[in-house]
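We treat protein structure as text, and this decision shapes the records that our systems exchange. Because each token names a local backbone shape, the row as a whole describes the fold. For reference, a complete record is included directly beneath this paragraph.
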Amino acid sequence: MTDKKDKGNGVFHVFINKTKYETEASVLKGSQILDLASMSPNDYDLFLVKGQGESERINPDQDVPIQNGLHFNAIAKGVNFGDPART
């Protein structure tokens, strides 16, 4: 994973539920990341995948510095995805 933009086109590639999306923004709010995948923060919770079995919950109004190769999971609200705060 690199934190540099693709050379020449100023586009970052991120993954939401294993689907690749592009953005030119270097910082996005959690709700804007969900919007890339046509998902609403009213219906989905967003998690940044950090490593093996580790993830960080991203709030809709939280700023996220965007880097190439970031992976996010968008989980339907009401579904326990291993987050102790959701049980």
